[in-house]
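Q: Give me the 3D complex with flavin-adenine dinucleotide.
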Amino acid sequence: MTERIFDIAVIGGGAAGLIAAGFAAEKGAETVLLERGASLGRKLLITGGGRCNITNNEPDIKRLAEVFGREGRFLYSAFSSFSPADTLKFFGDLGVKCVTEDAGRVFPDTDDAKTVLAALTTFVRFNGVKIWTDAEVRRLEIKDGLITGIVLENSIIRAKRVIVATGGLSYPATGSKGDGYKWAEKCGHSLAPLRPVLTPVKLKERWIADLEGLSLRDVSISAYSGKKTAEERGDLLFTKDGMTGPAVYNISRSISGQEHGMRLLLDMFPDESREELDKRLGKLFAANDKKMMKTVLGSVLPPKMLAVVMKLSALDGEIHGAKVSKAHRKVLVGMLKELETVIDSFHDFNKATVTAGGVNLKEVDPKTMRSKIIDNLYFAGEILNLDAPTGGYNLQMCWSTGALAGKAAATDSR
Ligand SMILES: Cc1cc2nc3c(=O)[nH]c(=O)nc-3n(C[C@H](O)[C@H](O)[C@H](O)COP(=O)(O)OP(=O)(O)OC[C@H]3O[C@@H](n4cnc5c(N)ncnc54)[C@H](O)[C@@H]3O)c2cc1C
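A: Here is the predicted complex, encoded as structure tokens.
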């Protein structure tokens, strides 16, 4: 076995590892970046449907942290030292121009995640990081409360400090297979339970297949298990056996793990109350009294949804507008405001955008990302017990925790 010595070893060449390695080297530390894949940033390349939603332009750090739920407080220091504005400046300085879209979502103006990865790779190379690809870390050697060796297939690396940025368990084909979780446990860390989140849902109803390919903008979905458990608003897309898209992804954060058999109600007109929608439909049928009910409804519903609504409501779509009664409208409003489905399950880690759970935050110093258990160990990115809805927040967390870990590990004077 060959042996190599570095100041800092960063394990994982994803978003968090790349930025951590670059900043560590910028501070003068001799840094090696170890990536099991043949290339860096494989997950980064598929983010945002290949466009990379690089951050969220939220200027208020407190609100940004709140998006991560109860665990968000941990991120105050990381977000203060590397905020979304810093992300924009960082990438801007590397030649990546960004565009802010709805809900603060920021994308590179090339609409191509490759631009982001190329910029990061330049940053890392420019600062002299040694990049080792095809370098799978097999295990960590631990002695007297320190990591003393990083074991690869044919070599051992000795590093003063080690940053673990191996990501979560989602999309394992990109290299994120959860190795870091096992090492963290061996080091004495505890893990918050790991769950696939931001993932499509499978529904029990067979009529869902009739809606395959239909996308709905800005609708609301609510999950019920006895009482309402969660509600999300956003776009969604029907698949052959369920639904996907931001609204579904975000509701998975609240209910994945307990979803089987839960009712999911779809509100296609969330800005109107039942009464308001009923009134609007009443006026519409009155104004089109000679047209068939299904023709009139076709002006407010896309064709695939119209067909499903007519089928499920068992109403005669061929009666004329003049004949549509209050009772008919009640049935229709029920369908449009509370189209009911039953959840079979969410998809597993193979299709989950992120992993919820991870290294317990109580065991990590939020000001440096250093382990409170192993003195020369740092964590960054998705391996930590942090996850947020869609919108660029998850990558911002990677930039912030990665930058902090890299700088802190390089300047730790103990
Ligand atoms: C389809 C999809 C779309 C997404 N879109 C967005 C988006 O637009 N915006 C957003 O904010 N977030 C998005 N996310 C989430 C975001 O991509 C992740 O939160 C982020 O990439 C996690 O970065 P990371 O560096 O922590 O881990 P990863 O990116 O998972 O990187 C970990 C790296 O460690 C390497 N590694 C693991 N084990 C070892 C080992 N033993 N030895 C050596 N190397 C190892 C892996 O090969 C991998 O390259 C998306 C996720 C997916 C799956």
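A quick observation: The pocket of flavin-adenine dinucleotide is lined by residues 11-17, 34-37, 42-44, 46-48, 52-53, 136-137, 165-167, 170-171, 175-177, 179, 353-354, 381-382, 392-395, 398 (CB under 6 Å).
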